[in-house]
């Protein structure tokens, strides 16, 4: 087994095909195919299902990919360490967040200190964030739950109440507050089942012997916001993520205080990398300063 064989396998798996892997590595497709074939032949295993022009990992290939993800991430960390004397200017930080509002305290100051760092921000729910971090497709995550796993370094950002919200033009928009008992009787516009805000309120309702049933289910906060703004129902959201929209109004939930914890997390094994540690440390310092 040679490094080039594992690298060829890893790039085919992560790039989605032999031609894309060849392009990413600046090699020819026959060279990539030959390295993967030699690896399969040497160990008498099948790493990819090859059907016409489509390539997919076998179960064995998926297990090997988990290992090569760690292998090449460690290689990347070694490169960072060896390049420590250089500025972070050429680096890239990949962030995935359930809501970008929670990045406000740290993103601006971080950009000021490291203006040449390229930052990419994507969104997802909690399971998607965990998956992206564990598959090394993201460096830092922001999510509405503090993970119990010991695999993560964690900076707690905030705890904010869950509120309902409605269109100002709707009858619900005139409410000063709403109880859980009233809420479950209203047409609810809820996010997909992976949403921790939804899950938290469902758990609280269940403990009170109530069932939260959506009239409309949609993926993503923007979709929920637009549907609620149309007057089609009542939404729920962490108050910190409500933001400002002149079409909508907040409705506090009375009789209970459901709170959402927001946390900034990264894999422990990646927390020593220059860029990730700089971002996590700045977040910790900014939040500590805010609470002082």
TrEMBL record:
It comes from the Bacteria. CDD domains: PBP2_LTTR_substrate (cd05466). SUPFAM superfamilies: Periplasmic binding protein-like II (SSF53850), Winged helix' DNA-binding domain (SSF46785). The keyword Transcription applies. Residues 1-58 form the HTH lysR-type domain. Keywords: DNA-binding, Transcription, Transcription regulation. Pfam families: HTH_1, LysR_substrate. The keyword Cell wall biogenesis/degradation does not apply. InterPro entries: LysR_HTH_N, LysR_subst-bd, WH-like_DNA-bd_sf, WH_DNA-bd_sf. Belongs to the LysR transcriptional regulatory family. This is LysR family transcriptional regulator. It comes from Sneathiella sedimenti.
